[in-house]
Amino acid sequence: MRDDIRAWLDAESGLPDQPLRGEFYVDAGIFAAEMRDVLGRQWLYADHVSRIPRPGDYFLFEVGGESIIVVRRKDGTIGAYFNVCRHRGSRICLDRQGSLSSFVCPYHAWTYDLDGALRGAAHMPDDFERRDAGLMPCHVRELEGLIFLCLAEGEAPDFDALAEIARPYLALNGLAPARLAARRSYPTSANWKLVVDNFQECYHCAPAHKLYSSAHSKDKLLAFGAGPGSGPVDAAERFSGELATWRERASAAGTWLDARAEEEDDIRSIWSVGRLPIKAGALTESVDGAPVSRLMGRFAEFDGGHSAVAFNVFSYFLASNDHVVMIRFTPRGVLETDVEFQWFVHPEAEEDVDYEVERLVRVWDVTTTEDKRITEDNQAGVASSRYRPGRFSALEGRLSTIKRWYLHEMATASVPSHEELG
Ligand code: FES
Ligand code: FE
């Protein structure tokens, strides 16, 4: 790592109550280090299994400069491989999705099976070992229909502990067999850390998100805007009556689940799970609180609750009783972040009978369009010669935690380990 980056990281660790200095949002060297040390150690949500139902179906997951082929193999399992030919390194799959019986490199036609093994390579010397030239695998795991990838070279971080904490939330909505009703992209010309910070605080909700703010309890947004226990205590006290009433109702319906988040001293991960009421009188997260589709999963009646799972800062599950929103933030370049939303409904819900797409997507489509604009304006400002980091508000406590985590990941991963030093 460059010495100036190392010095900036050291200086930032003494400044927990303010955003990062400008270089962190514009510097290509920092982005390269993040790709390896931060992104490379996450389990990133890639897509739902329904995207590749049949053997040979594949899609590309692109993060930073990497392209990963995610494919349904002949035996029905899901594989993931770096989209890099083992001959001279060409991209192999060029279309973002498709269906194939084998992967054929467009350059010199090396051919790989769906399990990544090299099957054909013409005119190679006699001593060439095909078995050593299979596609490079990427770590892949499935959880209740969700496909997660980890680009780590060597061993991937643990997946199972958080998977078991998140599973009841996903299963409550019957996510595995759910049907994709809509998918929308909001590519944002901003550094990924601005996109993440914006999503993790609700200080901006009142000034910037009129519709979102009207769909949710005001005190809840103040107290829990960025996850369980993230906001000021007085708002939490005001919200406690609303919460107690709802908790009783959800407990009676068997749909109450405890909120949890990473431990205070566990700075290796950022995650949270929780269910909270939407707002008094609202059955679902919609423009008017009225249902937008039919009940999903284990819900026998509307309980007015809203589930949220943050798997990390890049991958999120939000769910009402009648629909699920999956969100992923994928860094593509230092000033470019893919923001993708997917809306899932009951597998038998019919479009224009049980749901209308525009009504289903309305709250988050409006909110994310607003977020794209404010985040791009934020990027323009932090790139200025006169940007000086301000101070986090009482509603942005989560951003201090995220900053601590980020600095920890960057600092620890780039220092050679004792094993590496021998
Ligand atoms: Fe793929 Fe040559 S680079 S076959
Ligand atoms: Fe926002």
From TrEMBL:
Pfam family for this entry, one: Ring_hydroxyl_A
InterPro entries, alphabetized: Rieske_2Fe-2S, Rieske_2Fe-2S_sf, Ring_hydroxy_dOase_asu_C_dom, Rng_hydr_dOase-A
Cofactor: Fe cation
Annotated ranges, domain Rieske: 44-149
PROSITE patterns per the UniProt record, alphabetical: RIESKE
SUPFAM superfamilies: Bet v1-like, ISP domain
GO molecular function, one term: oxidoreductase activity
Record keywords: 2Fe-2S, Iron, Iron-sulfur, Metal-binding, Oxidoreductase
PANTHER family in alphabetical order: CHOLINE MONOOXYGENASE, CHLOROPLASTIC (PTHR43756:SF5)
Protein name, UniProt field: Rieske (2Fe-2S) domain protein
Provenance organism: Rhizorhabdus wittichii (strain DSM 6014 / CCUG 31198 / JCM 15750 / NBRC 105917 / EY 4224 / RW1) (Sphingomonas wittichii)
